[in-house]
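In response to reviewer comment 3 from the previous cycle, which asked for concrete evidence that the modeling workflow produces usable outputs, we include below a single protein chain processed end to end. The sequence was submitted unchanged, and the resulting structure tokens are shown without manual editing.
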Amino acid sequence: MKKTYSLILLLSAIFGFAQIPAGYYSTATGSGYTLKTQLFNIINNQTDLGYGGLWVTYETSDRDAFIGTGYENDNTIYDMYTENPTSSAGECGFIYATSQDTGSGGGSECQFYNREHIIPQSIFSQAAPMRHDAHFVTPTDKKVNGDRGDNPHGTVATVSSTTNNGGKHGSSAISGYSGQVFEPINAFKGDIARMYFYFATRYEDQVAGWSYPMFNSTSDQVFTTPFLNMLLTWHNNDPVSVFEVARNNAIYVRQNNRNPFIDHPEYVCQIYSTQCAALSSETFLADDSVNIYPNPTNTNEVDIFTTENITKLTLVNINGQIIKNIENPIFNQNSYKLNNLPQGFYFLQISAENGSLTKKIIVN
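The workflow returned the following structure tokens.
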């Protein structure tokens, strides 16, 4: 979600930044589909809180407690289907509990929010714990959720309808699939892609038996190649946001498992290395295309090494303050020194002509 790289403030204690639990990923040492199975073994012990438990989870996982363009900081429900990434104008402003689905209404946007299964619950026959898993079941506008139905997320060729925030519903532009798809706005494509990768990993012991246009009846790749390429592009073009980190932490408190692709975005291309290699030169910055050293640092400075043509560096602390915003930084022999860094934890967004990525920096 790109907009979260500008002026984000995490306010509540539960929404506050938290480190990944020590040793949580200590057994994730492989690569390719071996790594995917190792991650499955780490995250498959979630606590099933039931379908009603999602409402309770949303109280801490999906509230707008942020400051910045497009944020209200008013504790309303943060909804990927109606939020505006550039302005708060026209947003629904759903009130927790009060605006929940009552079983009626929802004929137009902004009446109610309900529970959207990013992977439709019909494909797994509404079975537990999939139906109740907040890592891919999000609060969204009831009208838009209903319009999307069981259609895959995808790239639209011919638009049949548009949501208030610019989401599109229409015919598929994905090779091999000619049905209807729903395309979210760019600011949320990465969020949704990481939910798909979570689902493919968390339920790899069952997913081969489920029929869905995006799936290829395997437990390793899971997705058809055209849909996989789309998800990889979405993941890499819209890096992990601070909101996703906060949401992951809040769900971990409730479910006792995490989305590894938020904690370690690099796992995606470590699993799907061949597909990422085929796409990387065209669509996004690969994680290993930029190196930062030393990191952590105790000298209040780091060196950034890359051969990419970097157009912008934006350093944001966990309180949402932009510490540095450097347009067209001048690299000397592929190196740029970022200095005078106060002690703390930061997100560095690195923008280039062919994409962007975000790195974490720790200053001790």
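The CA atoms of residues 158 and 242 lie 33 Å apart. We consider this sufficient to address the reviewer's concern, and the full set will be provided in the supplementary archive.
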